[in-house]
Every structure is written in structure tokens, then in C-alpha cells.
Amino acid sequence: MANLAGKTLFITGASRGIGKEIALRAARDGANIAVIAKTDEPHPKLPGTIHSTVAEIDAAGGKGLALKTDIREEDQIAAAVAKTVETFGGIDILINNASAINLTPTLQTPMKRFDLMHQVNTRASFACAQACLPHLLKSDNPHILTMSPPPNLSPQWFANHTAYTISKYGMSLVTLGLAAEFADEGVAVNSLWPVTVIETAALNMIPGLEQGRARKPEIIADAAHAILTAPSRDVTGGFFTDEAVLEAIGIADFERYNLTPGKSPYPDFFLELDRNGKNDPQVAKLLEKLGRFHKAA
Question: Is 164 a known active-site residue?
């Protein structure tokens, strides 16, 4: 079975939520993981620190490295990349997971929040890729995976939170550009997005949602694992959803990921009614390659 044993992952926002689950999934394979986040000391309202995540990574069979990093600062990114390479000998995978969210209409969006979202989301995704790419280019199966939605210029995705939507689509445009730029060098660059709401700290930022109607972040971690273990030259330039990836590798029962058994999760943002993106011919072709690889493995 394809796995991430011995691979080195650089994961932003890895002290909790989806980033942490991706880290733990890789750790069970025996991967090395640089935990990139700002939470060095316990937060009064949010669970987890870079150190507690590293402890869980080590307990799961991986090797963790806690690196307090503000990804809005390129010198801190550069220092974290250098320490990761010094510790583990290189970088095979970059996960752009960290994200800032503020679901407010234009007149209720302070410019400092606009700037924060663009610094953490679009700018940091580009900056982390730029810093990691010299090392990714030396890997035998390099991947960049960004947690961002399929680009869609339908006004409905902008009307209620233009600032946030622009920042998330900016992350997706980084995927689009880098996938084309580095295709010949064999660096896979993809995006992954959930079909449903995921139970994370960010969920509490969305008003009016009934508690429990979400999926566990493990569904994203399992989908990410399937992408990251695939051959980088074969699977790149895709805007994937968690369900489509898991279906491609033979997993069709998603009930096990529900936070509350028997309670259907809310659909997530930015996805049309077909939800899983299979109507996109390019994505369908990549999913077919992904499925063939994992069935053979």
C-alpha cells in the first residue's frame, strides 16, 4: 500500500483541526512532520499547541518538529524551512492549510481583517510554496496541497463575504499557476476542499449552524493522504473534493466521518449542486488516474 514513510511534510496551521489530522495520518505511516503555527502556548479558547501536536505525532509513529511561525512573515517562513531541512534532510510535501476566515459583508469588514485574510490565505500560500520549492524540486515525489475551493466566478459565492471569497480563491489561483509552472519539473500542485462542513475551530465562526451537523476532519486527512501518495507527475492541477477522492479509491460510505451518527452534515461553501466536481473533465481524468494507482498499489 502506498504510504508516506520517511517523507517530510511542512504543514501550516498544524496545531489543531484539519492540519493536525493530516499530520497524524502521515505520522501513522512513519513520516516526518514540521508543525507550523503560531500557538506556542495554550490558547484560552482554542485547543492544541505546536508542542502538543508534536507529542501526538511522535506517539503515532512519526517524527514531529514544532516550529512557531507567523506565516505572514517571509523571514519566519524561511527560518522554518531551513530548520526543517536541517532536521530531516529535505522537504517532500507542503500543505497550505492555515487560513483566516471572516464571513462578513463589505460594510462590516474592517480593512485590518481584509488584510489578515489575504496575508494568511493568498500571500502565505505563495510565500510557503516559494520557500519550499527549491527543496521540493529535489524530492522524488514532491507535492503541494492547498486547502482551497475550485475557482468559480458565480456571484453567489461573493455576495455575502466578498473579502473572504477573494482570499480563498487567491489560494486556488496559486494552485492553478504553480501546477502549470512546475508540471515539467514533476511537482504536483493541487487543491482540496470539503463537500460538507468540517468540525474545526473555524466552524464556530459561522453563525446559526446547528451543532453536530458536520464531519470529522479525518475525512480531509484521508483524502489528502490519497493525493499525497500518488505519483506527482500523474496527479497535478486538480481541484479536488474529499468525497470525490475517496470514491475514486473505493470508499463510498461517508457515514463514519459524521460528527453525529445519523445527522446529515451541512454542505460547505463554494460548491455547486453536483458537489464533488466530477463534471469538470480535467478533474474526472485525474480522479481516474488516482483510482488506478491506488487500486494497483
Answer: yes
For 89, 168, 262, the CA distances from 284, given in Å and listed in that order, are 35, 23, 30
Residue 79, Cβ neighbours under 10 Å: how many? 14
Cell, residue 244: 470525490
- In the numeric block, which cell numbers belong to residue 16? 489543531
Distance CA 12, CA 3 (A): 21
Helix (H) or strand (E) holding 242: helix 242-248
DSSP letters, 279-295, are TSHHHHHHHHHHHHHHH
CA neighbours closer than 13 Å in the CB half-sphere of residue 212: 4
Alpha carbons within 13 angstroms on the beta-carbon side of residue 181 total 13
Distance CA 197, CA 97 (A): 16
- pLDDT tens per residue, the chain (297 residues)? 689 999 999 999 999 999 999 999 999 999 999 999 999 988 777 778 999 999 999 999 999 999 999 999 999 999 999 999 999 999 999 999 999 999 999 999 999 999 999 999 999 999 999 999 999 999 999 999 999 999 988 898 899 999 999 999 999 999 999 999 999 999 999 999 999 989 876 666 566 677 788 999 999 999 999 999 999 999 999 999 999 999 999 999 999 999 998 888 888 878 764 555 556 788 989 999 999 999 888
